[in-house]
Amino acid sequence: MSERVTGVGEECGVFGIYDLDGNSVAETIYFGLEALQHRGQESCGIAVSDTEGPKGRVNSRKDLGLLRDVFRPATIEPLKGNIGIGHVRYATSGSTNVNNAQPLVLNYIKGSLALAHNGNLINALELREEMENTGAIFHTSIDSEVIAYCIARERVKAPDIETAVRKALLSVKGAYALVLMSPRKLIGVRDPYGLKPICLGKRDNAYILASESCALQSVNAEFIRDLEPGEILTISGDGQIHSDFLPKAPCPAHCIFEYIYFARLDSSIDGIPVYDARIRGGRALARNFPVEADLVVGVPDSGLAAAKGYSEESGIPFGMAFHKNSYVGRTFIKPTQKERESSVKIKLSVIGSVVKGKRIVLVDDSIVRGTTIANLIRMLKGCGALEVHVRISSPPFLYPCFFGTDVPSNKQLIASAHSTEEIREMIGADSLGYMPVEELQSMVGNLPICTGCFTSRYPMETPTEEIRDLLEQS
């Protein structure tokens, strides 16, 4: 498997809309997904249907690449329909190929079902094997198809789609935010732990579901609320919204990395603005790891707000030390170490006049393998920085994530085999401070959070070693 320069992979983004006035929605889905592009750049897709047209007819397009590469006016125009869903994918399970792109569209005895999924199941392999033994044929290697087949199987005997969804998800374990489209309904689901975000919005007479509130803003929709953990929210053609709930989890656990890294700065999740959470994280770093320095800088983009918080708490001026080349395509997958190192320089360059002769505090969201931060430190010192003190707005990654965050296996995590002092020496920093685990809660107030990748205290039972090996090979 190719390595990644930045280490931690984004998640996926989902978007759904039901225009009750019958207007075509494909273009709105495109712009909503564009606002979620940061959550996945490997593939994307849109599926739409006309609720007044032939029941079960779904028009869809999906492919590898960014939205701007996959969709053009000429490819969006044929996607006619007033209900639809969309997806941007970052592979956390399954390989990167067009078959694994979403939304998934199933045609079965009850009509059609389209599904888009953010998250990861921990019992997908068991469910898949069970269904294969009863004759199911899978066309992808992603766990999202397992969910779709579970729902389709239940729908054959259920009175309606929402009942089928609820019954199917009783057998599913893991993290998920789902948007589903049946011929006449749009459904959003959030896992009982609340690990993955999904929210509801409204524009005129259209209802929208999205992974982040920034996607609602991008299409001029009003934010209504976040879905609650375990909620199954159904939007019908008469404009009625109905909620059902899966059994409550014993301990809700929202992914803290949404606030540290994944979500866009202008999003708000579960009532907490992401920008404010990152400012608080930077302040906590400054309280725990003060240092004498001349300038605080952040690694674009996810380190900037935390750097601002560090500056505010410490009184050290905040500055911009890097220029980010916005026109470079995604470069994190590189086959050789030399290419991985050069890709960092292609994306980021140091503003020499800002750092020359100064003691720098460099704030970033994480250290996974250490490759990127070491390159940035060399670049800063090469441009005349006297000292570089690194502050990281997450604790050290010590354990894998099983819920949709692409944290590599333990043997690839630099912190699992080295002390903080050893890492400091390896990356060439003058000092190194990680966010203390106990300070994570200060970022989000009373919101219950998952810290499994830092502490190994997961909110649910995790896969066995045998299953973990199979997951890494898939």
From TrEMBL:
[4Fe-4S] cluster binds at residues 255, 401, 450, 453. It comes from the Bacteria. Gene3D superfamilies: 3.40.50.2020, Glutamine Phosphoribosylpyrophosphate, subunit 1, domain 1 (3.60.20.10). GO terms for molecular function: 4 iron, 4 sulfur cluster binding; amidophosphoribosyltransferase activity; magnesium ion binding. Mg(2+) binds at residues 302, 364-365. Pathway: Purine metabolism; IMP biosynthesis via de novo pathway; N(1)-(5-phospho-D-ribosyl)glycinamide from 5-phospho-alpha-D-ribose 1-diphosphate: step 1/2. It catalyses: 5-phospho-beta-D-ribosylamine + L-glutamate + diphosphate = 5-phospho-alpha-D-ribose 1-diphosphate + L-glutamine + H2O. In the C-terminal section; belongs to the purine/pyrimidine phosphoribosyltransferase family. Catalyzes the formation of phosphoribosylamine from phosphoribosylpyrophosphate (PRPP) and glutamine. This is Amidophosphoribosyltransferase.
